[in-house]
Design goal:
single chain; alpha/beta; Rossmann fold; 2 domains; five-stranded parallel sheet; 14 helices; 55% helix
Length: 312
């Protein structure tokens, strides 16, 4: 089973406050993912559309989820039809699903869909990381990964973990904010999408100051220097304000255009506490532009969950 399918099952069970259906919901999500050849964009969009329907049509969550699958897939993919769901899932008829879609379209709030898509992907990743699957088989896909860490040893450790999970992954390592920005610009110029960025929280040159009794104050000092949040901001792409002034199209903010940025630190939990106290933390678990903040060392199952959630 895929980590995204499991996360969707857990999310549905949480919404309905019914832990007993998590496995059934995950199996339905996995069936849809494989039978309909759904990528992560389609999965996240399906969950985005399904969430209010599942809450509204609570006793009939399978129907609500199936309608969400249809709307999300249509929004992300040209040439997707209700008949595809009927042919491959077979649980509901075309007429019933068409009526469900008509009702759902009237219920849905349509503003800010690109940013919301990214938030739903982030939220599903948070669920997946809460109990990541330990999968024996490696991923056959090939994502582009940027590692940003002052330590060459840490870079090689992460590279080894990534290739153990996905042997064909294209991994590039740099050691500073400036080098990360340069690599992102080069990738943009070449038309290449970076799917995942693993970045150490502290990127200032020199030795890391020891954490003493006032760890909070020292962490605040770390955040004043070059850090993961600077890299996260650079990954947003072109300047949105500049585009608006030039009457150009606004930058896309969903994960089809922006890498998934993971900050890692031995003080990750403290970062979460500070973020909540300062209103930096969003409902989807992201913090100040970083889609996730995880404690080190990252384990094999955590890296695999990241890869599963970052594949397009």
């Amino acid at each position: 089973m895929h980590n995204m399918s499991t996360a969707m099952g857990r999310a549905i069970a949480t919404m309905l406050e019914a832990d007993g259906i998590a496995e059934e919901a995950a199996e339905l999500a996995e069936l849809a993912r494989t039978a309909l050849a759904m990528d992560n964009g389609m999965l996240a969009a399906s969950m985005m559309f399904a969430q209010p329907l599942i809450m509204e049509w609570r006793p009939h969550w399978r129907f609500a989820f199936t309608v969400g699958l249809s709307l999300g897939s249509k929004w992300m993919t040209e040439g997707f039809f209700l008949g595809d769901i009927v042919d491959r899932l077979g649980e509901f008829s075309v007429d019933v699903l068409r009526e469900g879609e008509a009702v759902a379209l009237g219920m849905f709030a349509w503003g800010g869909l690109n940013a919301r898509l990214r938030s739903f992907r982030n939220a599903l990743h948070s669920v997946a990381q809460s109990d990541p699957l330990l999968l024996d088989e490696s991923s056959s896909s090939s994502i582009r990964v940027l590692i940003v860490d002052r330590s060459p040893h840490a870079c090689e450790h992460h590279r080894t973990l990534i290739h153990a999970c996905q042997p064909a992954a294209r991994v590039h390592a740099v050691h500073s904010v400036e080098d990360a920005i340069a690599h992102k610009r080069a990738a943009d110029a070449a038309g290449e999408q970076i799917e995942l960025v693993l970045v150490a929280l502290e990127l200032a040159p020199g030795e890391t100051a020891p954490i003493g009794n006032d760890a909070n104050a020292q962490l605040q000092q770390v955040l004043l220097g070059p850090n993961a949040f600077h890299v996260a901001a650079a990954m947003e792409g072109r300047d949105v304000a500049h585009q608006v002034a030039a009457h150009g199209p606004p930058a896309r903010t969903d994960f089809l255009y922006k890498p998934f940025v993971v900050a890692s630190s031995e003080h990750a939990m403290m970062v979460h506490d500070i973020a909540e106290a300062n209103d930096w933390k969003q409902a989807d678990g992201s913090i100040n532009g970083c889609d996730a903040v995880l404690p080190v060392p990252l384990a094999h199952d955590q890296i695999r969950a990241l890869i599963d959630c970052c594949e397009l």
